[in-house]
Specification:
- The structure is a single chain.
- The chain has 132 residues and is of the alpha+beta class.
- The chain has one domain: HIT-like (HIT family, subunit A, 2-Layer Sandwich), CATH 3.30.428.10.
- Helix content is 32%, strand content 19%.
- The protein has three helices and five strands.
- A hairpin with a 3-residue loop joins β1 and β2.
- α2 packs across α3.
- The longest helix is centred in the middle third of the chain and has 22 residues.
- The N and C termini lie far apart (31 Å).
- Bound molecules: guanosine-5'-monophosphate.
Amino acid sequence: MASIFSKIINGEIPCYKIAEDEDYFSFLDINPIAEGHTLVIPKKEVDYVFDLPDETLHGLISFSKKIARGIDSALGTIRTGVIVEGLEVPHAHIHLIPIYFEGQPVSLGRKSEIQESRMKEIASLISKAVEL
Ligand code: 5GP
């Protein structure tokens, strides 16, 4: 059965899309731990990130870098952090966490709810700032 993230790639489930190319896709996490919390995934569905072929893993990191640059530029972060956990959704993904101030708690356990209108606004801001 296709993962929830494959369904997002295929447009069967809506998302706040940031960017995509032939091999990778990025969108806002539905339960963000900070405004602009973004997920980056390979289109090829593999559960464990370290089971990805080297080429795909390298490409995932390079694509994530471009998205992180967009986040930094659009949202005025001090930097963007990275978390890889993968215990909830069996489709390899990188969490990009905008960090706005030193000491900001960065933990996947600290999720918040952000209004739909603000999620749309954030996605649009990041999307416009990303240079692929
Ligand atoms: P992990 O697998 O690394 O623990 O986390 C999976 C992440 O995917 C979670 O942060 C969760 O909020 C996010 N997530 C789960 N289902 C959906 C979904 O349908 N849409 C979006 N945008 N994010 C999701």
